[in-house]
Amino acid sequence: MKLKLWLRRRSISAPKMTIRTDLPWPLKVAFIGIVLGLGGAVAMWTYDMGRSFTGFNPGAKEQLATFKEQIDKLSAERDQFSSTVDSAESQLNIERSAQKQLAAQVKALEVENTRLKEDLAFFESLLPADTGSHGIAIRRLKVEIIDPNQLRYRLLIMQGGKGERDFVGNIQFAVTVVQGGKSAMMIFPEAASGDLGKFKLGFKHYQRVEGVLTLPDGALVKAVQARVLEKGQIRAQQSANL
Predict the structure, then answer these.
(1) Domain boundaries in the chain?
(2) pLDDT per residue over 190-202, tens digit each?
(3) What is the C-alpha to C-alpha distance for residues 158 and 228, in angstroms, rounded to an integer?
(4) DSSP for 5-43?
(5) 135 Cβ neighbours under 8 A, 6+ residues apart
(6) What DSSP assignment string belongs to 45-67?
(7) Which runs of consecutive H residues, i.e. helices, occur in the chain?
(8) What architecture is domain 136-241?
(9) What torsion do the CA atoms of 82, 85, 91, 93 make, to the nearest 10 degrees?
(10) 168 versus 35: which is more confidently predicted?
């Protein structure tokens, strides 16, 4: 039996022996404290990161509020600039419209000024008024070609004296033309024309008459005579050459 025990101890199958080092308890406490401290630091860092990602970080809230304030400020400036541009464009459109209206008014005033000059010349002509035995006179007869076959006329007809009665009659034009190498006279309005109403006269002191006569194609106007008729009788006449 003793021999077997001695041989077992010397053989490879002998039981292993473990050697452990027993640390002093102060070192164990320090090591545990270091481990706990590192674990707490990691936990706090993880907690702060989680708060920052989820929006619970006070610093992130302040930054977010600052960014929002800047965005609101930029939006307000953009709206102000947009309003300024819209106001300027509206003002420009108003000024353009005012310029167009002013140009139209100037043109209308020029036309009215021309008419007033004609009226002034007419009233000046009334001072030494020589209206003849019939008391009717034609003043300032003007004719001009505005198209190859259109003739524009303008004239003033006046009644001298105190104008105790209204004059009622009509105006007639005798136009001398050359057509096809031959001279001819055309009367406006024609007896069967439907425009007789446009040539009627009715006034007490004076009447301005203007209009357009349509001529045949190829007719060359040489002279125009304006006649004032009363009951078919000529009361006044005046001629103009072209």
Answers:
(1) 33-128, 136-241
(2) 877 778 888 999 9
(3) 10
(4) HHHHHHSTTSPP--------HHHHHHHHHHHHHHHHHHH
(5) 159, 160, 161
(6) HHHHHHHHHHT--HHHHHHHHHH
(7) 2-10, 25-54, 58-126
(8) Sandwich (2.60)
(9) -100
(10) 168
